[in-house]
């Protein structure tokens, strides 16, 4: 299979969509029954992934998805590989994606491993390397600098939850995290950070109180939609599913978008401040469900990975 991704604005033609195991598969993996709430998460996540797949296909995008049979696999397929032009670079090899790796002849398994691919932003003539350690930074600068200008940043958390360039029409940002005026003086910037009176995640007051209460139980790591966590729930997740959850309290899902092309994007949350602005720029918003994003700590950009644009 040929791959080609020169930027994030050309027409998306083929994408990988992350997956989760069925409850029965998880019980087989763990050799034990799992709580009902975990059944709920897995079943509803599979329903939402199917809705996302259907939306992509209605927009003319081919979707590849692979079964998950180990805890080493992740719904966050963005973490483990990145396509740069016609080459696939793998930094975190997932068992579930072996068939994908085998199908792409033009690939490299990067010796400096890790789930840092969301922190490498590729565009036509520049690349942003964000919070990479020295070894990874030197490697990627060597790979990318012959064709692209390198912009260095050092933000906390995956960059796709901090800023997003929407088809060169606008930057969405959670704070003053990039030198926007220096490098992109003609592209407007929409500030969303709460410190600057921005609105994030679009919670109603009651929902906000619920979220604060539930996040206190998990030290800001995760919450479960429409479920009050018990001590047993938290103990089970922390003991057996710790690698599935992240630190969702810091994640801005309104920025975590899937860009189909210059006129279409897919989103998993509702924020009228963001989406009204994008629609005023001629961008159509396609809303899809992802109810348990605060459990998986991932938006639609995290759970997908581009293979072909153009």
Short descriptors:
single chain, 310 residues, alpha/beta, L-arginine/glycine Amidinotransferase, Chain A, 3-stranded mixed beta sheet, 9 helices, 28% helix, 20% strand
How is the secondary structure organized here?
Blueprint: E1 12-17, H1 23-30, H2 36-58, E2 62-64, E3 81-84, E4 87-90, H3 98-103, E5 107-109, E6 120-122, E7 126-130, H4 134-144, E8 149-153, E9 163-166, E10 170-173, H5 180-183, E11 189-191, H6 205-217, H7 231-240, E12 258-261, E13 264-267, H8 272-280, E14 284-287, H9 293-296, E15 304-309
Parallel strand pairs: 1-2, 4-5, 7-8, 10-11, 13-14
Antiparallel strand pairs: 1-15, 3-4, 6-7, 9-10, 12-13
Instruction: Please tally the helical runs, counting DSSP H or I stretches of 4 or more residues.
Output: 9
Assembly level: single chain
The SS-based structural class is: alpha/beta
Total strands: the figure is 15
* N-to-C CA distance: 15 Å
Helix content: 25-40%
CATH class (first level) name: Alpha Beta
Integer count of domains: 1
User: Would you identify the regions where 5 or more consecutive residues have pLDDT less than 50?
Assistant: none
Look at the structure and name the CATH superfamily.
Answer: L-arginine/glycine Amidinotransferase, Chain A
């Amino acid at each position: 299979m040929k791959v080609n991704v020169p930027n994030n604005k050309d027409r998306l033609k083929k994408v990988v969509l992350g997956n989760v195991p069925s409850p029965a598969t998880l019980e087989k993996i763990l050799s034990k029954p799992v709580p009902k709430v975990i059944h709920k998460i897995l079943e509803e996540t599979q329903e939402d992934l199917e809705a996302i797949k259907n939306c992509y296909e209605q927009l003319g995008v081919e979707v590849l998805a692979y079964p998950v049979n180990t805890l080493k696999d992740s719904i966050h397929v963005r973490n483990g590989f990145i396509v740069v032009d016609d080459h696939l670079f793998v930094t975190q090899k997932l068992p579930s994606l072996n068939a994908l790796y085998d199908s792409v002849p033009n690939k490299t398994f990067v010796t400096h491993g890790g789930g840092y691919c969301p922190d490498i932003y590729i565009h036509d003539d520049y690349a942003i390397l964000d919070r990479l350690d020295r070894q990874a930074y030197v490697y990627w600068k060597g790979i990318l600098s012959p064709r692209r200008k390198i912009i260095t940043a050092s933000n906390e958390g995956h960059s796709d939850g901090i800023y997003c360039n929407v088809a060169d029409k606008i930057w969405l940002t959670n704070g003053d995290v990039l030198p926007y005026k220096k490098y992109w003086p003609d592209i407007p910037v929409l500030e969303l950070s709460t410190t600057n009176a921005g609105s994030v995640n679009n919670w109603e007051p009651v929902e906000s109180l619920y979220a604060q209460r539930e996040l206190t139980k998990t030290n800001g790591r995760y919450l479960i939609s429409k479920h009050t966590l018990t001590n047993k729930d938290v103990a089970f997740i922390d003991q057996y599913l710790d690698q599935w959850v992240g630190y969702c309290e810091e994640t801005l899902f309104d920025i975590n978008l899937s860009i189909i092309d210059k006129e279409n994007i897919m989103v998993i949350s509702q924020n009228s401040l963001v989406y009204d602005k994008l629609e005023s720029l001629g961008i159509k918003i396609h809303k899809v469900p992802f109810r348990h994003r605060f459990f998986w700590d991932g938006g639609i950009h995290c759970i997908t990975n581009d293979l072909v644009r153009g």
